[in-house]
Structures are given as C-alpha cells and as structure tokens.
C-alpha cells in the first residue's frame, strides 16, 4: 500500500551537442510510503546519462513532499552537478516552495515560475 | 467537517483536543495529512500557509514514530490540542519498541547537532526534525513516557506567527518613509 505518486520523463530538444535535457514531471504526494521506490526512477535516469545531464523538474502537479524526498532531491543534484549537469525546478506550488525554502534547498537549486523560463535557464 | 468546524469555531474559549491512534504503517499518513490540513484551515485562526506547515510537521513526527519508535503492527498516537486565539499543540507518541528507538536525551542531542549545521545538508536524512519541525514550531520537547516510549510535543503560538508576519512586512517594505502594518 502506497500513496499515489508518479514521475514521467520526456525528452527536450537540446541546443548543445553532448548535453541531454529531460523534463521530469512529478505528480501526487511523495511521502514515506512511496519515495524510496519512486526515487529509483531518477537514479536510473542519472545512471543512463552519466555526464552533461540537464534536468527540469516540473512540480506543477506535485502536492506534497516529505523531508526524505527533499533529501533525495539534494542527492540527485549532487550526482548530476559533479558530472557537468544541472537541475532546475519549475511551477512549484506555494506549499512545496515553502518547504524547499525552509530546508535551504532553494540556495542550491533554482526555481522558476514557468517551464519556458526553466528551459531558458538550463540551456544558457 | 464543515458542521464540526463551525461548532469548534463557535466554542471560542474552550480548548479542543483530538486524539488519533493509527497503525504503524506510512500508508495511513496521507489521511492524517488531509485531516491536519482541514483541521487547521477550518477550525483555527492560523493561515492556510500554516495549515500546510503543520501538515508537514505532523507527517515528519509521525514518520519518525513509525520508522524508529515502534515495531510494525503496533500503534502510534497523535494528539492535537487547539487553544483558541492562542496556540496549537501537537503530540506524537510511539511505543518505544522500534529497532532504533532512542531516549529523549539522545534524540535531543542528535537534533541539536543537525540544527547547528549552518550549511545546507548533503545527506538524505535529518531534515525532518532539525529543519521542518524546529523551524516551524516555537517549542519542541522530547519526553520519555513512564510506561516506555517517546512523546514529542510541539507548540506554535498564534502571537508569534503574527509577529513574524509583521517583521516580514517591515523587511519587504521598500518605501523607507512609511511603515507597512
């Protein structure tokens, strides 16, 4: 038994050779009942694209995230960043932005109000 | 819920106490989060932002009780005490039978160490109590229960929320010639 949540991954056209850009859409509630399993999708994505991976996390449909899911977010950022990639977050709901701010994650990962702004930021 | 909310709001000066007992399985936390959000939004003077914050506080405390403090198949207890126009208190109790259950003093020491870290944490765990619960409450207390197990008690005062909001409005006011209230 787990709380409903899903992660879908789409390709985004990259303007730079050798750079892979993916749009990762989160929906539902990431909590203790599902986060360990869902996190594996992102680890697999990182393993399949070991260098220059740019990820745009679309949080528009993400209703809740707990402290462990924020911990995973930090870990993914570290793995992607040390291999020349980037992670940005787009379309965050106020309650999610509030929690990202209180744990200090917005000092590490930039957030943007729209996907277009996030795309622009990650490709320039 | 709306009828109950109206009744509770009309009971202006009487403290409201609600206790929920639930099995030690994280699946049930989704329902507890919904309940917390509705309770705070509909029956207290705390804002919607604070309703979401308490949702996280309850979730983090209960997850710790489930994961560390109690064995599978047992129960944890969550108590909400709302003092109208004054404060909200939340208590979460475990049975103390979990494989890494700790005494109040040990937990306090660990949490204090995390709180003192000034740089963003790099590890996956540790943000629940030290960041979310600590930052969003005015009192955080760990109590060893006489019958065994741990009780974590947090309190948030409405006056502190109002003061914090007021301070923010001072900071965000760009017009130096006027004070924004």
Written overview of the protein:
The complex is a heterodimer of chains A (124) and B (181). Chain A is an alpha/beta fold. In chain A, 38% of the residues lie in helices and 31% in strands. Chain A has one domain (5-123): 2-Layer Sandwich (Transcription Regulator spoIIAA), CATH 3.30.750.24. Chain A has helices at residues 35-48, 67-81, 94-102, 115-123, and strands at 5-12, 20-30, 53-65, 86-90, 111-112. In chain A, helix 3 (94-102) links the parallel strand 4 and strand 5 (111-112). Chain A starts with a strand and ends with a helix. Chain B has 181 residues and is an alpha+beta fold. In chain B, a hairpin with a 3-residue loop joins strand 2 (75-83) and strand 3 (87-93). In chain B, helix 3 (48-69) packs antiparallel against helix 5 (127-135) and helix 4 (104-115) packs across helix 5. Chain B is globular. Residues 173-181 of chain B have low confidence and may be disordered. Chain A binds chain B through residues 1-3, 29, 31-33, 64, 66-68, 70-72, 74-75, 78, 94-95, 98-99, 102-105, 107-108, and chain B through 25-27, 29-30, 33, 49, 52-53, 55-56, 59-60, 63, 66-67, 120-128, 131-132, 135-136.
Q: Major sheet of chain A, described briefly?
A: 5 strands, mixed
Whole-number average pLDDT of chain A? 95
Can you tell me the CATH class of chain A?
Alpha Beta
Give the CATH topology of chain A: Transcription Regulator spoIIAA
For this structure, the CATH topology of chain B is: Heat Shock Protein 90
Show unreliable segments of chain A: none
Taken together, the total number of domains of chain A comes to: 1
Strand content of chain B: 15-25%
Biggest beta sheet attributes of chain B: 5 strands, antiparallel
């Amino acid at each position: 038994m787990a709380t409903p949540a899903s992660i879908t991954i789409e390709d985004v056209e990259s303007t730079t050779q050798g750079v892979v850009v993916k749009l990762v859409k989160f929906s539902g509630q990431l909590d203790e009942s599902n986060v360990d399993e869902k996190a594996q999708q992102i680890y697999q994505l990182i393993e399949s694209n070991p260098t220059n991976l740019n990820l745009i996390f679309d949080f528009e449909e993400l209703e809740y995230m707990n402290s462990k899911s924020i911990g995973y977010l930090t870990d993914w950022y570290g793995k992607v960043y040390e291999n020349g990639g980037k992670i940005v977050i787009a379309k965050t709901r106020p309650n999610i932005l509030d929690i990202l701010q209180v744990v200090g994650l917005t000092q590490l990962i930039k957030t943007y109000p729209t996907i277009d702004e996030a795309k622009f930021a990650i490709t320039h | 819920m709306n009828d109950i909310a109206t009744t509770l709001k009309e009971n202006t000066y009487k403290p409201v106490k609600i206790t929920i007992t639930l099995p030690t399985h994280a699946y049930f936390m989704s329902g507890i989060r919904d309940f917390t959000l509705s309770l705070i939004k509909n029956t207290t003077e705390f804002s919607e932002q604070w309703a979401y914050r308490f949702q996280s506080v309850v979730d983090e405390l209960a997850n710790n009780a489930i994961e560390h403090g109690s064995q599978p198949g047992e129960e944890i207890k969550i108590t909400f005490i709302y003092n109208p126009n004054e404060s909200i208190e939340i208590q979460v109790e475990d049975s103390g039978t979990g494989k890494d259950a700790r005494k109040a003093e040990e937990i306090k020491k660990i949490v204090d160490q995390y709180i003192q870290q000034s740089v963003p944490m790099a590890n996956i765990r540790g943000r629940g109590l030290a960041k979310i619960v600590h930052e969003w409450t005015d009192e955080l207390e760990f109590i060893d229960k006489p019958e065994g197990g741990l009780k974590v008690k947090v309190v948030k005062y409405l006056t502190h929320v109002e003061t914090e909001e007021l301070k923010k409005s001072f900071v965000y006011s760009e017009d130096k010639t006027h004070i924004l209230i």
